[in-house]
Amino acid sequence: AQRVTQPEKLLSVFKGAPVELKCNYSYSGSPELFWYVQYSRQRLQLLLRHISRESIKGFTADLNKGETSFHLKKPFAQEEDSAMYYCALRDTGTASKLTFGTGTRLQVTL
Amino acid sequence: DTGVSQDPRHKITKRGQNVTFRCDPISEHNRLYWYRQTLGQGPEFLTYFQNEAQLEKSRLLSDRFSAERPKGSFSTLEIQRTEQGDSAMYLCASSSGGYTFGSGTRLTVV
């Protein structure tokens, strides 16, 4: 069965410090991985996906199949990055449903 | 089109009552999903529609739960004989590739 693990419930960093939100997965096939973000009082929204290999709001994430990881990184945290971050894996079945991790709350302080 | 709409935003009900939630997806999206999110957890898949056909249901979806998408447009999720354990945020998402989530319906069973 597929599984997504986010080991940290809360990550607190100072403004300007580097950020790394960890995500590990288990999946028997070829995974498609995503990071979703939920800002305070807003809906869940896509931040980035591994296949696009892009940087969104300064965040990047690289799929490491050897370590089965998809960690989210940003070199310099900003206050507006404070939010709940969810790593998700999409299966390749008919439903293309998402399996989410439990989420990590990122708190950026001055 | 303002995205995925869910109604109501909040619902408080007494244990044993029936409740129904509505989701209006993005009009050109043929895929519609329901997820449930409890405190401290990521969203968990409940069910999936391709147009009007319900193609997959999670084992989380007990026989007290029923979902419909009668004309392949809006969808309803009904919970009969609600229990306190049903208290959660119920999220709807639509997709034609990427997911777009609604703001959710927060159910509290007292």
What does it look like?
The complex is a heterodimer of chains A (about 110) and B (about 110). Chain A is mainly beta. Chain A is about 0% helix and about 45% strand. In chain A, strands 2, 5, 6, 9, 10 and 11 form a 6-stranded mixed β-sheet that branches. The N and C termini of chain A lie far apart (about 40 Å). Chain B is mainly β. In chain B, about 0% of the residues lie in helices and about 50% in strands. Chain B has no helices and 11 strands. Chain B has strands spanning about 5, 10-15, 20-25, 30-35, 45-50, 55, 65-70, 75-80, 90-95, 100, 105-110. In chain B, the strands form 2 sheets. In chain B, strands 2, 4, 5, 6, 9, 10 and 11 form a 7-stranded mixed β-sheet that branches. A 4-stranded antiparallel β-sheet of chain B has the order 1-3-8-7, with no helix packed on it. Chain B is globular, with a radius of gyration of 13 Å. Chain B starts with a strand and ends with a strand. The mean pLDDT of chain B is about 95. The interface between A and B is medium-sized, with 20 and 21 residues.
Q: Could you give a short description of this structure?
A:
The complex is a heterodimer of chains A (110) and B (110). Chain A has 110 residues and is mainly β.
> Which class of secondary structure composition applies to the elements of chain A?
mainly beta
The helix-strand sequence of chain A is: EEEEEEEEEEE
Output mean pLDDT of chain B: 94
Q: In this structure, how is the largest beta sheet of chain A organized?
A: 6 strands, mixed
Quick tags:
heterodimer; A: 110 residues; mainly beta; 3-stranded antiparallel β-sheet; 44% strand; B: 110 residues; 7-stranded mixed β-sheet; 4-stranded antiparallel β-sheet; 11 strands; 0% helix; 52% strand
Structural topology:
The complex is a heterodimer of chains A (110) and B (110).
Chain A: E1 3-5, E2 10-14, E3 19-21, E4 24-26, E5 32-38, E6 45-49, E7 60-61, E8 72-74, E9 83-90, E10 98-100, E11 104-109
Parallel strand pairs in A: 2-11
Antiparallel strand pairs in A: 1-4, 3-8, 5-6, 5-9, 7-8, 9-10, 9-11
Chain B: E1 5-7, E2 10-13, E3 19-24, E4 31-37, E5 44-50, E6 53-57, E7 65-68, E8 75-79, E9 88-95, E10 99-101, E11 105-109
Parallel strand pairs in B: 2-11
Antiparallel strand pairs in B: 1-3, 3-8, 4-5, 4-9, 5-6, 7-8, 9-10, 9-11
